[in-house]
Write a structure and sequence with these properties.
Number of helices: 16
Number of domains: 3
Largest sheet: 7 strands, mixed
Oligomer: single chain
Order of helices and strands: HEHEHHHHHHEEHHEEHHHHHEEEHEE
Number of strands: 11
Bound molecules: S-adenosylmethionine
Distance between the termini: 43 Å
Low-confidence stretches: none
Strand content: 15-25%
Structural class: alpha/beta
């Protein structure tokens, strides 16, 4: 008999979200699918009234929780993803008639947008921020670049004319296509396309109408409406300790950045540029400093002063191994910072949790210089000291690394006990 609480391996990647209405607007491979969250709520926290996702990404936790009748609070440090969440929440909160009107207004633009855009001046300001941020790096063919600058002006004009939701939807459509029409490609991290890949180069003129059709289809056909409350409590999860909450959090469902070097900001630099969040190259550095340290380029030597000794035997052994073997001395520093910052987040969170709250964390481990960093095990040890007790460790996916070690994606099921369980 199929087990309805069984977690499919596809649910823990973005694969299952590619066809999900609204989720498909901006493919984000770091995301998990709504089904994963449904299963976790059914299995661990059916009676939850408030769920927190400290690393919200595209908002999967909050949209899935809404369907289960649960309010959420969330943090997400990347303004691109906050923009995406806000836009989807706004659309899904409209009444049926408002939504039909919005779909019809957007649909009406599809056959004319490319002609209309030609009548606009390319955005000078966006051009300047490109030069100041990316210097001489060439990410687009000249004509594509010009079209993108004109689209910026076109969308700004819509916003000035009080069509702010249409402007937001057009913004999402355009930024979701920036990577496909650029010379870059996302494969793990963003890199330049090869000559062969460039043979199949895609163009904004071809993709934009289809993207808008897809969005219209979702707005028209998706009868679901947001019924619960979803609040961005603080942008940066590291500040959760200072947040003021009226209600206690029943459960945390999240997938933090893995300790594998994914540079979330560099990977979304084109989108952030289009959204005007990058004016100079210092802005990328600023965002990287805000995010959880999870890659060697995130590390600054000065960080070490902020790190304390953590109570984890596995971490101590791993750091000693890394100190001897790592090809780059920033690697042990990165690991130290990662677990320190996680401790900071979960310490700040603890007095906001109900006693017995579940912490459901989807996390992967990694290998640097042949040293296996057992991220989930270390995190469980580090959090144990502040009242989070490991209940289950479920392997979601496993693969063999180049040196033969198994790397796993796991679900950590932890429970929070006030006063560390002592009365
Ligand atoms: C693995 S992704 C989460 C994906 C999400 N579960 C989804 O389905 O879309 C991790 C997210 O954490 C965010 N992040 C990194 N550091 C953060 C911080 N200090 N505070 C809040 N969010 C952060 C990243 O921008 C990224 O979107």
């Amino acid at each position: 008999m199929p087990n309805k609480n069984r977690i499919s391996t596809f649910d823990v990647t973005f694969k299952n979200s590619k066809k999900v209405p609204f989720q498909r607007w901006y493919p984000y491979i770091e995301g998990y699918s709504p089904n994963f969250v449904f299963n976790l709520i059914d299995k661990y926290c059916k009676d939850a009234t408030l769920i927190y996702d400290p690393f919200a990404g595209t908002g999967t936790t909050l949209f899935a929780s809404d369907k289960k009748g649960v309010n959420t609070i969330f943090s997400e440090v990347n303004p691109l993803l906050r923009f995406l969440i806000d836009t989807k929440v706004m659309v899904m909160s409209l009444s049926e008639s408002e939504r039909r009107k919005l779909a019809s207004d957007l649909k009406a633009l599809i056959p004319i947008i490319l002609t209309e855009v030609e009548g606009y001046e390319p955005s000078e300001e966006l051009n300047l921020s490109y030069v100041n941020t990316f210097g001489k790096s060439l990410y687009f063919e000249a004509e594509q670049y010009l079209l993108i600058l004109k689209l910026r002006s076109y969308i700004d004009h819509k916003r000035k004319n009080n069509q702010s939701l249409i402007a937001d939807l057009l913004t999402v459509a355009v930024f979701s296509l920036l990577l496909p029409v650029s010379y870059l490609k996302k494969q793990g991290d963003v890199r330049f396309k090869t000559e062969d890949e460039r043979v199949h180069q895609e163009y904004m003129e071809d993709l934009l109408p289809n993207k808008l059709e897809q969005m219209v289809e979702d707005i028209e056909n998706f009868s679901y409406s947001i019924s619960m409350k979803h609040t961005m409590i603080c942008e940066n999860a590291k500040n959760i300790g200072n947040a003021i909450l009226n209600d206690k959090i029943s459960s945390v469902i999240t997938s933090p950045p893995y300790l594998n070097g994914t540079n979330y900001f560099r990977n979304t630099k084109l989108e952030l540029w289009f959204l005007r969040h990058l004016k100079t190259d210092a802005d990328l550095r600023f965002f990287r400093d805000e995010a959880l340290t999870s890659g060697i380029n995130d590390v600054k030597a000065s960080y070490i002063r902020k790190c304390e000794q953590l109570n984890s035997t596995t971490l101590k052994l791993t750091l000693a191994e890394l100190d001897c073997n790592a090809y780059d001395k920033r690697i042990p520093l990165m690991a130290r910072c990662y677990f320190n910052e996680m401790l900071q987040i979960f310490s700040g969170l603890s007095n906001k949790l109900e006693n017995g709250a579940y912490l459901l964390i989807d996390l992967g481990d990694s290998i640097f210089s042949n040293v296996h960093i057992k991220t989930d095990l270390i995190l469980a040890e580090v959090l144990n000291d502040i009242g989070y007790k490991l209940e289950e460790r479920i392997i979601l996916r496993q693969r063999r690394s180049r040196n033969g070690t198994f790397i796993s994606q796991v679900l950590l099921v932890m429970k929070y006990y006030r006063n560390n369980g002592f009365i």
